[in-house]
Amino acid sequence: MNIVIFGPPGAGKGTQSQFIVNKYDLHQLSTGDLLRKEIKDKTKLGNDISSILNSGNLVSNQIVSDLIEKYISNPIYKSRLIFDGYPRNLNQAKNLNSLLTKSDQKIDIVLKLSVSLKTIKKRISERKNLEKRADDNEAIAVKRYQMYEKNIDPIVGFYKETNLLKVVNGETSISKISGEISRLIEGIKG
Ligand code: AMP
Known about the structure:
Elements: E1 3-6, H1 13-24, E2 27-30, H2 31-40, H3 44-55, H4 61-72, E3 81-84, H5 90-102, E4 109-114, H6 117-131, H7 138-161, E5 165-169, H8 174-189
Parallel strand pairs: 1-3, 1-4, 2-3, 4-5
């Protein structure tokens, strides 16, 4: 089973991905984490992209595609991936389909966590103290939220067409959201 989870920054994608990983023995593929690791390890790529991440903009489609392809093509992760933070635009959604098809895989369910900007601002300010991420401040959070909103409709349309999209209310408690996600996943497992 491969899962896509998306939602605005601070929606709880990371937390819920971890829950799904543990419950269904999947591997979380967070493009944000992969990119932050490049920066932390001071690789050439990391140096090239650090200012982009810090400003809340998106890095190029090619860079993220190369990063995720390594996992998609690795037999260890075959049909065991949860994509967190990818796709972020329609081109990426289409690219994900072709990368998966190439290695004889597909997406089984797409989970969209919906959360208001008001809640996001509150969560980001809490997370800033815990995780000390350079892009966690209110102005950048609003910018990232707006970018998410701008790009999300075509992606939603794309996954609706194939009946894969499930919308989850991300405003409730972590355990309620996990419960709802489990219910939806059990539903597709049949
Ligand atoms: P995240 O941890 O998912 O909030 O991502 C943090 C940052 O990494 C984003 O603001 C972007 O700069 C970059 N990033 C993560 N995923 C992608 C993606 N799929 N496409 C482009 N940039 C991305």
